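Appendix B, Record 12. Input sequence as logged:
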Amino acid sequence: MLETEYTEVEMRCVDCSAIWHPPVARQVNVKTHPDARLGILLGTMHRTRCPSCKKPRDIEVIFDYYDPDQNLVIQIRPDWEIVAGGGEEYYWTQYENLVKKYADQHVRVDVVFGFKEMIEKYLGGDEAVAAAREEWNARVEREAQEREAKLAQTDANG
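Logged structural output:
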């Protein structure tokens, strides 16, 4: 089974020149880390803010998305890369490299360019995005209620 792996990247703010090192997934197993799927659907995965000026930034990093239930590995690359790399020929080159990388794993593979393509091809499109928003909003509401209940309990005991 392919496991989730993280690393750090160096970021430099284009506005204030601050440097920081946010964590990123190099490989994610969505069975053991299901929030990765949610992060892709919500557009929050591989996002950061400058610690100084707070400007939000995308972290453009190549990573592998593994879904063991579907026996599938998808390499997610920056969306601009397909155009810069030469289009369809570039896709097939990256696909062939991925096939070789996972030849001994007995998984299906594909390459996508950007979260939008990933969502459209593999995660369920706009309906899945809407469901992810509902899930996230319900989670935020539930966590707020749990915090309020803990505060009320602390006040009652204190």
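The mean pLDDT is 94.
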